[in-house]
Amino acid sequence: MSGPNKYGQGPDSVGRAYEIQVKQFVNPDRPTPAALGVALINPMTGRPVVFDDCQHSTGNMIEAKGPTFTTILMKSLKDPKNKPYWGVVNGLLDQSERQVLAAGSREVVWYFADRVAAHAVRSIFAEEDKGRENIEIRILPYREAK
């Protein structure tokens, strides 16, 4: 099932540009349109869980975290009570748990534009468990559109 995907930082943001880059990387012949995501049903709640994409050749469920995500994540980890960053880690944990449940036997792959954020999230997922440690974390550097 496909449906609207959240814009994150807005339709013209670097985050959206990175999501488009990831979609073109995982599905080079037929990328999912920018404003759409792929939804699977969470068997625990019966509600849809949206992913940025699904890789057509493997069925892997895809999530993209762009270059500005590193700044937000690092501020959150330094001072978890500092708004607006206090909810970043909790949001990651919530999103990842919902995605793992909805994906079932499908692999979940998160792409990061930045190595620092990728390693930090990998560590957070390993500590928090609940299947998150099975999310494959990959690094795909952001390339600015010319």
pLDDT < 50 runs, ≥5 residues:
none
Give the distance, in angstroms, between the N- and C-terminal Cα atoms.
33 Å
Strand order of the largest sheet: 4-5-6-7
Output the radius of gyration: 15 Å
The residue-averaged pLDDT reads 87
Q: Please give the number of β-strands.
A: 7
Total helical elements: 4
Main beta sheet: 4 strands, mixed
Helices and strands, in N-to-C order?
A: EHEEEEHHEHE
Q: Which of globular, elongated, flat, extended, rod-shaped describes the shape? A: globular
Helix vs. strand class = alpha/beta
Q: Please, how many domains?
A: 1
Helix content, binned percent: 25-40%
Strand content: 15-25%
List the SSEs and their pairings.
Blueprint: E1 2-4, H1 14-26, E2 36-41, E3 48-51, E4 53-54, E5 61-65, H2 68-78, H3 88-103, E6 108-112, H4 115-128, E7 136-139
Keywords for this structure?
alpha/beta; 146 residues; three-stranded antiparallel sheet; four-stranded mixed sheet
